[in-house]
Amino acid sequence: MFNKDTNENIKEAETVIGPSIKVKGNFHGQGNIIIEGEIEGSVKTDNYLLVGEKSIITANVKAKNAKINGKVTGNIQIDEYLEIGNTAIIIGDINAKILSISKGARLNGKCSMNEQGINIEKK
C-alpha cells in the first residue's frame, strides 16, 4: 500500500470522510479509509488508513497500515507500518511494527514497536 502515491490510495478507498464532515461513532471496515474531516469515537480498518492534514480525530485508532498527517487524540495500534507526517499532532500512545516520524511532527505519548516477525538471536 505504501509504494503507491496518495491518489492511488484515494482511488482504492472504501470509505472517505470529507473535510466538511463531523461524525460521532465507531467505524470498522475491511477496506481503505481516508479521513479528511472530524471523528469522535473509534476507527478500525483491516487495511490502510490515511488521515489528512486538517483532520481531527478523538478516538482510538487501529489499522494494518497508516499515514497520519492530522491531529489524533487517542491510542494508535498499527499492525505493520505507521508513517507520521510532519503536520501530525498525536496525543496518545503508539504501537506499531514499523514506525516513521517526519521532522516537525508532534507526539505526546509512549511509542512501542512490537517484535512480531523479528528474528532476534540469543547468545
Question: What's the gist of this structure?
Answer:
This protein has 123 residues and is mainly beta. 5% of the residues lie in helices and 57% in strands. It has one domain (6-113).
Description:
The protein is mainly beta. It has one domain. It is 5% helix and 57% strand. It is built from 1 helix and 13 strands. Strands 1, 2, 3, 4, 5, 6, 7, 8, 9, 10, 11, 12 and 13 form a 13-stranded parallel β-sheet that branches. It is globular and about 30 Å long. The termini are far apart.
Task: Note the main sheet.
Answer: 13 strands, parallel
Specify Rg, calculated over alpha carbons.
14 Å
How many domains in all?
A: 1
How many strands? 13
Mean pLDDT across the residues is 87
- What coarse outline follows from CA principal-axis ratios? globular
List the helices and strands in order.
HEEEEEEEEEEEEE
Cα distance, first to last residue? 36 Å
Count of discrete alpha- or pi-helical segments spanning 4 or more residues = 1
Assign a percent range to the helix content. Answer: under 10%
